[in-house]
Design brief:
The chain is an alpha+beta fold. The protein has a single domain, classed as archaeoglobus fulgidus dsm 4304 fold (2-Layer Sandwich), CATH 3.30.2170. It contains 4 helices and 9 strands. It has a 7-stranded mixed beta sheet, sandwiched between helices. A two-stranded antiparallel ribbon has the order 5-6.
């Protein structure tokens, strides 16, 4: 099972969303879960994962045993030895589930595969743990949608914003 996740922050809580799907080419999710998380850590510069990771783990909980790959909005690696949100999620999932990070902006020092989709002029930046980054980038490139951001990544973003 494949999943993509995202979190939206409100003044007193967060909304986490998870869309599951079976194939990289899918245009719609097999299932959607949206969770409200009331106990959210404050943002700490350089330690964003401490805020977002508990939200992601909560929304992934119903699928944890079936997951093969999770896509996060952001980076898995911020540099060669500097873990990002995705690396922390990979560790929290016991290194049993591959994690792919898809970022919309370049992070200085991150070694990311650039993926240009559709007619976009700006790339997406793909990093990964538990799967080769080149293969992860090819999977993201193949995802449904004619635009820069794949359809399911747009939908998960919308699900947590609307939640």
């Amino acid at each position: 099972m494949l999943a993509c996740v995202d979190v939206d922050y409100r003044p007193d809580h967060a909304i986490a969303a998870c869309l599951t799907f079976a194939d990289w080419l899918d245009s719609s999710p097999a299932s959607t879960v949206v969770s409200r998380i009331d106990d959210v850590e404050p943002y700490t510069p350089g330690q964003f994962y401490k805020r977002e990771l508990p939200c992601l783990l909560e929304v992934l909980r119903p699928f944890r045993e079936q997951l093969d790959v999770v896509i996060v909005d952001g980076y898995v690696w911020l540099g060669e030895a500097r873990p990002g949100l995705g690396a922390h999620l990979y560790e929290a999932l016991g290194r049993k589930v591959a994690v792919i990070g898809v970022a919309k902006t370049h992070f200085n020092g991150a070694l990311a595969e650039e993926v240009v989709r559709g007619t976009a002029s700006r790339p997406l930046y793909v990093t990964a743990a538990g799967i080769d980054a080149v293969d992860a980038a090819a999977n993201v490139r193949s995802m449904h949608g004619a635009y820069r951001l794949p359809t399911l990544l747009k939908l998960v973003d919308r699900a947590c914003r609307d939640g």
